[in-house]
Design a protein that fits this description.
By secondary structure, the protein is an alpha/beta fold. The protein contains 11 helices and 17 strands. A 5-stranded mixed beta barrel has the order 6-9-7-8-10. The two termini are about 40 Å apart.
Length: about 350
């Protein structure tokens, strides 16, 4: 099975650490390795580096090659510009289809935390086996929900497929709901019938392209043109010409929410998964209790609760009587805001364009 790790997002919700030129997946948010390196590292005990591919933007070519020297040079797939996840997965699918249309592929993301790594690898192998045996054409890998998260998709699961004694459980797929309103997310959480969609799935390039053909026929035709050029001298020119014309659309909206439940399965486990794409999500992922503070770097907190203070500079950061606050210090920016104000960070970063602070975005 081939593994594709996507590493192309900018990550403005983790500003000021994550910026256009240094996105979150390349930064050392947790530990001494980037989240991209950690993602590949949790795969290599089970999967050979020759089977691991990286998909990202052209502007990040030098940094991904530098961070992952163990991967073959030809295993890096570069997008000429950002067109959202739908076109990015379509591009990867068309290229891997040309290499081998029937070998299973797993789609993963580079900016996530997965604490239960062995269970995660077992889930990938179970999904691969299910695809190879013909028991499913598409397998989601999902996380047991911990709260009513409205920032991700939710999957409604059906009856269990395998035995309770199996180390990893598999269920029938019923439907996907993308980023519900908070009230609906709370209903999903209480029902026990919905789980978090992590964006992880296993299928074949042939199945993937058939979905694009059915649900996004215009994009599919352009993908075929790019695929035909792949491996030739015309590839770079063809990609640069066609890729920017793709509609900016998420893979969920383009494909997933339209899928019928036929021949689709869901692997469900408590993987210790968290999307560390926002400061409040990182706080939730690292804190053992809701009231616990999470700190990094040279910090000192007194009489504070439920706060995250990350210091990437030399100066000491002191917090007194902090309550549900975020404090992020880099060499050139200090961000201070309540946890509930994280959605405003993206708008603020966008507002820097054309100002004297544009270089900080």
């Amino acid at each position: 099975m081939k593994i594709v790790v996507f590493a192309g997002g900018v990550g403005t919700r983790l500003w000021p650490l994550s910026r256009k030129n240094t996105p979150k997946q390349f930064g050392k948010i947790i530990g001494d390795k980037s989240t991209l390196q950690q993602t590949v590292g949790r795969l290599i005990p089970e999967f050979d580096p020759s089977k691991i591919f990286i998909a990202t933007g052209e502007r990040y070519e030098s940094i991904v090659r530098e961070q992952l020297p163990e991967l073959p040079a030809e295993n890096f797939i570069f997008e000429p510009e950002m067109r959202d996840v739908g076109p990015a997965i379509g591009l990867v699918g068309s290229i891997l289809h040309k290499l081998d249309p029937q070998e299973p592929i797993a789609i993963l993301w580079s900016d996530h935390l997965v604490k239960e790594e062995e269970k995660f690898r077992m889930g990938l192998r179970m999904a691969e086996e299910s695809i190879n045996s013909g028991n499913a054409s598409f397998v989601f890998i999902a996380q047991k929900p911990r709260f009513a998260n409205q920032n991700i998709g939710w999957i409604e699961i059906g009856d269990p497929i395998n035995a309770e004694s199996d180390s990893v459980r598999m269920y029938a797929f019923k439907q996907l709901r993308y980023r519900p309103e908070l009230e609906e997310a709370e209903e999903f959480f209480k029902s026990g019938k919905f789980v978090w969609n992590l964006g992880y799935f296993v299928t074949t390039p042939a199945q993937l392209l058939s979905m694009f053909e059915k649900y996004t026929p215009e994009m599919y035709e352009k993908l075929l043109t790019i695929q035909k050029a792949y491996g030739t001298q015309e590839y770079a020119t063809t990609l640069a010409e066609l890729y920017p014309t793709f509609e900016k659309i998420s893979f969920d909206d383009a494909i997933l929410v339209k899928l019928p439940p036929d021949n689709i399965s869901v692997i469900l486990e408590d993987l210790g998964w968290s999307d560390v794409g926002a400061w409040e999500a990182l706080k939730e992922a690292l804190a053992k209790t809701e009231d616990e503070n999470v700190t990094h770097g040279n910090t000192l907190l007194e009489d504070s609760r439920d706060s995250l203070v990350f210091n990437y500079a030399k100066q000491l950061v002191v917090g007194i009587d902090l309550d549900q606050m975020l404090v992020i210090q880099t060499d050139d920016v200090v961000l201070i805001c309540p946890k509930t104000s994280v959605p405003k960070i993206k708008k603020l970063v966008e507002s820097l364009s054309g100002t004297a602070h544009e270089h900080l975005a």
